Amino acid sequence: MFRILLLLSLFLSTSHASDFCVADLKGVKSPAGYPCKSHVTVDDFVFSGFRAGNTSNVFKAALTPAFVDEFPGVNGLGFSAARLDLDIGGIIPMHSHPGGSELLIMVSGQITAGFVASDNSVFLKTLSKGDLMIFPQGLLHFQLNAGNTKATAIFAYSSTNPGAQLLDLALFGNNLDSTLVQKSTFLDAAQVKKLKGAFGGSY
């Protein structure tokens, strides 16, 4: 009887272990995520940072992520979120997420959004409050404010860390020889120099 009670107490004390794995951000991150935190509280499952971001930048846009590094509770659960704020004229340029698909949920304003499929077909739509749009994993996509007021949307991702590669930064925010950039983009030297200057690349 004692053995049964002992086994039962051990089971009850560890029964939550397979329910979740809150990230220990001090641990080593792997493709599977972070190791599990030993002491967990309710605050690990709450993210209070979804506030309007600062849109005073060249894109007139702000992305507030709730990925595993900001929200340890999503570790191992296969999803995460972000908030998008677009000022009038704001844009999130062409980019892709190698680690997950994206679901856009419109909150306010109007956003024209689209993606380019692998056969180069374009899927484009102007969205309003209550609309949702999917951007499949790895495909180039963008969002721009199509209205005359600020726009807000929430993103849900099929990964705790979807990653992102911005096309403009990939092309012009690096130290790739400008002659190679010219040849691969069909832009002239002056255009490449201007864009590298804008995105922090070396000419």
From TrEMBL:
Q: Which SMART domains match?
A: Cupin_1
Tell me the keywords, alphabetical order. Answer: Apoplast, Disulfide bond, Glycoprotein, Manganese, Metal-binding, Receptor, Secreted, Signal
Annotated localization? Secreted, Extracellular space, Apoplast
Answer yes or no on keyword Glycoprotein.
yes
Is DNA-binding one of the keywords?
no
Chain ranges passing through the membrane: none
Which CDD domains would you find in this protein's record?
Answer: cupin_OxOx
Q: Which Gene Ontology MF annotations are present?
A: manganese ion binding
Positions of oxalate binding: 97, 102
Q: Which InterPro entries match?
A: Cupin_1, Germin, Germin_Mn-BS, RmlC-like_jellyroll, RmlC_Cupin_sf
Q: Which PROSITE patterns does the protein's record reference?
A: GERMIN
Disulfide-bonded cysteines: 21-36
Q: Extract the signal peptide range.
A: 1-17
Identification of the protein by name: Germin-like protein
Annotated organism of origin:
Lupinus angustifolius
The top of its lineage is: Eukaryota, Viridiplantae, Streptophyta, Embryophyta, Tracheophyta
